[in-house]
Protein: Antitoxin
Organism: Zestosphaera tikiterensis
Amino acid sequence: MTEFENRIVVDPKIMGGKPVIKGTRVPVYFILELLSNGWSIDDILREYPHLSREDVLAAIKYAAKVLREEVIVKA
């Protein structure tokens, strides 16, 4: 089991199947958007106290894995 498999879930019944932090409706892409807008992990945890540092790090690791495994097909 990878570091994020127990924290990130994909369920078609939750947020249209987007990857979310387990037990929440907080999608991985939202965490990445916050970080890209200059939020720190501590900022996220202050605004979303139901999340843990490990949840945020799992979202980052999940996104990195997806991008690392992405296959680019040139037309």
Summary: The longest strand covers residues 8-9. The beta strands are 8-9, 20-21. The chain has one domain: 8-69. The radius of gyration is 13 Å.
